[in-house]
Design brief:
The protein is mainly alpha-helical. The chain has one domain. It contains eight helices and no strands.
């Protein structure tokens, strides 16, 4: 049995990110794929998203400090890939909310608000994790991570934009399907939240597979050229 099979998805994300930063050619794309792979191997709840985000950033920080000349550019690429992956998770969550709301009769306004609040929280998780890793780092990478956190806070993130768009789209879709008459209160919010997290992981599987197919096609086209 290989060492990797004993690692959790979070641990694998950290290890894979370290390797990508040390040896990768397209760090942003590799980190995106690593993050999506780790996210989809567990139900897509906020706790798991936070753990994976921290692991990716910590792995990147450990590896980037070994090459101070490239550190700023490397960490910038890492955060761009992570941001993109979290945006994909926002889209997967939106699809899961639609599916769950459509098949559960007692899905309530309270359930919908809880689900959309979770979507809105993704940008905060990203920036908060950057700040936390920067503050806990005792290396030269600390200042760079803090600068990146400030940049994203001031300029916005891909995941924040994606989440806002999905919340708007979700509201329109629910209104269109007549679910505005859903119950005002539900006692099963936790169950619905878990259903959404599991469904989102499944949708993220599809997104990851689509990315892999696109990469294969691009590689095949390069060989033909």
């Amino acid at each position: 049995m290989s060492k990797d099979t004993k690692q959790t998805p979070v641990e694998l994300a950290r290890t894979a990110t370290e390797e990508a930063v040390k040896y990768g050619e397209n760090i942003s794309a590799e980190v995106r794929d690593i993050t999506i792979e780790a996210l989809r191997r567990h139900q897509l709840d906020l706790e798991h998203i936070k753990a994976v985000t921290r692991a990716v950033l910590e792995g990147a920080e450990d590896a980037a400090k070994l090459n101070s000349d490239r550190m700023k550019d490397t960490l910038k690429q890492v955060t761009e890939g992570l941001d993109e992956a979290l945006g994909k998770s926002a889209y997967a969550s939106k699809l899961a909310i639609e599916e769950t709301a459509g098949r559960i009769k007692d899905f309530s306004e309270h359930d919908l608000k809880r689900a959309t609040d979770d979507l809105s929280a993704l940008e905060g998780i990203f920036i908060e994790s950057l700040n936390e890793v920067a503050n806990s780092s005792k290396t030269v990478a600390s200042d760079t991570l803090q600068d990146l956190a400030n940049h994203f806070k001031n300029s916005g993130t891909a995941v924040g934009q994606q989440a806002r768009e999905e919340i708007i789209n979700l509201s329109k879709q629910i209104e269109k399907t007549g679910m505005e008459n859903m119950a005002a209160v539900s006692e099963a919010t936790k169950s619905f939240t878990e259903d959404i997290a599991r469904a989102a992981s499944g949708f993220l599987d599809g997104i990851a597979d689509s990315i892999k197919e696109t990469k294969k096609e691009n590689q095949a086209n390069k060989k033909e050229d």
